[in-house]
Amino acid sequence: MLRMAQPIIHHRTAEFREIFKRASENLQYLFQTEQPVLTLTSSGTGAMEAALVNTLSAGDEIIHVNGGKFGERWGNIATAYGVTAHPLAIDWGGAPSVDDALAMLDRHPGAKAFCLTHSETSTGSYTDVRAMAAALRERFDGLIIVDGITAVGAHEMRFDEWGIDIAVTGSQKGLMIPPGLAFIALSERAWKAAETSTLPKFYYNLKKAKKSIATADTPWTPAVTLVIGLDQALEMLRVEGIENVWARHDRLGSSLRAAVRALGLTLFADPPSNAVTSINLPERGDEFYALLKKKYSITAAAGQDHVKGKIFRVSHLGYYDEADMLAVIYAIESALTDVGHPHEQGAGLAAALAVFSGTENPVEVK
Amino acid sequence: MLRMAQPIIHHRTAEFREIFKRASENLQYLFQTEQPVLTLTSSGTGAMEAALVNTLSAGDEIIHVNGGKFGERWGNIATAYGVTAHPLAIDWGGAPSVDDALAMLDRHPGAKAFCLTHSETSTGSYTDVRAMAAALRERFDGLIIVDGITAVGAHEMRFDEWGIDIAVTGSQKGLMIPPGLAFIALSERAWKAAETSTLPKFYYNLKKAKKSIATADTPWTPAVTLVIGLDQALEMLRVEGIENVWARHDRLGSSLRAAVRALGLTLFADPPSNAVTSINLPERGDEFYALLKKKYSITAAAGQDHVKGKIFRVSHLGYYDEADMLAVIYAIESALTDVGHPHEQGAGLAAALAVFSGTENPVEVK
């Protein structure tokens, strides 16, 4: 990523347009869509806001799955704009069932959008967006909106084929570049909704962004150096092949989950995300977590809100490969030994290796 | 700026908080304010939007100076949110007079905000914000809002002392780092207005950002690598001393203006900005401009809208020093020679050197 440190090129030059054009095309490959994927200089939250303010009007209703901090956020954004949010509340760590989702549609027939979280970072749980979108579409004419912030680039997502109406993601997750960019795609149905949406917007006016992208431009000055990094990251993804990228994350997630079980720990989320694994803390959990971070220098995250002190989360998306995962598992084993958690030495590593070699949990793209 | 290419540190770490805390304090020095200066991951336009949506309500009225594309933008943002914008229209290249500004107050006594553009990038003109703020404040209880996007770090700006209520700037201008961050400060009066503002906001909710900055945090994931670059840029500014930075830009702007006049060209803007100089194109202007960019590799900008084909603009803020300015002047002289514009060879360089040596146009911080 040294290219990001080179002298800044101006965004209204042929040189930058060429980079931005290529990156935008590769974003369509990443999202598996023929629709333009718009680049915003913003965190992912801004793209979530853009999804709602460009397609809804004050007084509209939405349904959103609320099983973690990011699912909850859809509701918070809606409420801030005078849109009524009906939460489908599920236990943290779980995923919504199709039946519950359909029951919400029955209860709120006027809902204009159904908002999902593909991989809920706060809990490590995974939602089967393909199945959910297929079931919803049978009887729902509104928008199916997906927060793909930790999922895109880790889990299979086929925007066009699955009938998603809006998907958003951020730069620092599956794309492996620093934070500061967010991406959003809209289906024809969503662009049609944008025609009648009356919620106010200016910076996040996506119709302006769509018009600009036709000439490889953005309405406002973009984060140029991050776009240059994006271009490189997407080229790497393209060379690896998106199916291989998904399979790699499946393999990594499976290996960590197998290791955790072999060490006598339990998983928090079901079904689990392949981008982040949340694990229930063992006895002497605070001490274990502190060791993991300080003695073994593992970038783990604590639980938030009511799972604070109960779980820890390990993220494994982007650059991660098998060796990185073994290093993480070795650190977990070592910290468990330090706090006196009973386990067979090397059991976690052995379980992970079995996954890598295909003798356990055969890896498939779901 | 090689530090920006190093492995990404997570934003919720002690290491990042220390950097962000120091940068935020140095931003207060840059703005000359005791108020917190908030960092947004956004272009400068997003910070302009944040200024209005955090302090106004639908149906409110504002006055804004409209003498270029950026002055016009205040009106466009307001209108998008259902706020009535009264433009004080002035000729492009000019600056508003205090009398005209006061007359606008008389005509629109209900105005809640008066929006200014300190340095209008599209025309290269400068507004005396100190004088304007002093005159407005005598009879205006609303908010004095300043777009400082190309001014902060180039022109003297004393947020607290001058009684400014909101000022915004961006990362890629006076701060010399890549685009992607914007900064905003609010006075006590503006924070009070935020208490009753009902315009919708979520990503740009500044009350959230103010709460976060108290613990050196941001509500949403910031553009971490850009913050690291910001920290370095601000340290450099602090070492140079803000008064010296302003004086350097004054010296550079003065030298270019003296050179332009000595070469028989005329300036477009009056009064002129010290961040960007706009110059009326000579005969064979298209050819001259193309030579400047292609043969002499000068980063000049064309005129926009109705001054397209009439002016060219040279920006000189941030890293610029005397040698850079001489290189620009030499390029202008050479391109003039190429198109057969009559001028004394070396007259521009001589005029600039006279400014540098203090034998002409003694440099003062205004």
Task: Walk me through the topology.
2 copies of one chain form a homodimer.
Chain A: H1 14-31, E1 37-41, H2 44-53, E2 61-66, H3 69-80, E3 84-89, H4 98-107, E4 113-117, E5 119-120, E6 125-126, H5 129-139, E7 143-147, H6 159-162, E8 166-170, E9 181-186, H7 188-196, H8 206-213, H9 224-240, H10 242-262, E10 276-280, H11 285-294, E11 300-302, E12 311-315, H12 322-338, H13 347-357
Parallel strand pairs in A: 2-3, 2-4, 4-7, 7-8
Antiparallel strand pairs in A: 1-9, 5-6, 8-9, 10-12, 11-12
Helix pairs in contact in A: 1-9, 2-3, 4-5, 9-10, 10-12, 10-13, 11-12, 12-13
Characterise this structure:
- The structure is a homodimer of 366-residue chains.
- Chain A has two domains: 2-240, Aspartate Aminotransferase, domain 2, CATH 3.40.640.10; 242-357, Aspartate Aminotransferase, domain 1 (Alpha-Beta Complex).
- The first copy, chain A, has helices at 14-31, 44-53, 69-80, 98-107, 129-139, 159-162, 188-196, 206-213, 224-240, 242-262, 285-294, 322-338, 347-357, and strands at residues 37-41, 61-66, 84-89, 113-117, 119-120, 125-126, 143-147, 166-170, 181-186, 276-280, 300-302, 311-315.
- In chain A, the strands form three sheets. A seven-stranded mixed β-sheet of chain A has the order 1-9-8-7-4-2-3, with helices on both faces. The first copy, chain A, has a three-stranded antiparallel β-sheet with strand order 10-12-11, with helices on one face. A two-stranded antiparallel sheet of chain A has the order 5-6.
- In chain A, 55% of the residues are buried.
- In chain A, helix 1 (14-31) crosses helix 9 and helix 10 (242-262) packs antiparallel against helix 13 (347-357).
- By secondary structure, chain A is an alpha/beta fold.
- Chain A is globular, with a radius of gyration of 21 Å.
- The longest helix of chain A has 21 residues, at 242-262.
- Chain A has 13 helices and twelve strands.
- In chain A, a hairpin with a 4-residue loop joins strand 5 and strand 6 (125-126).
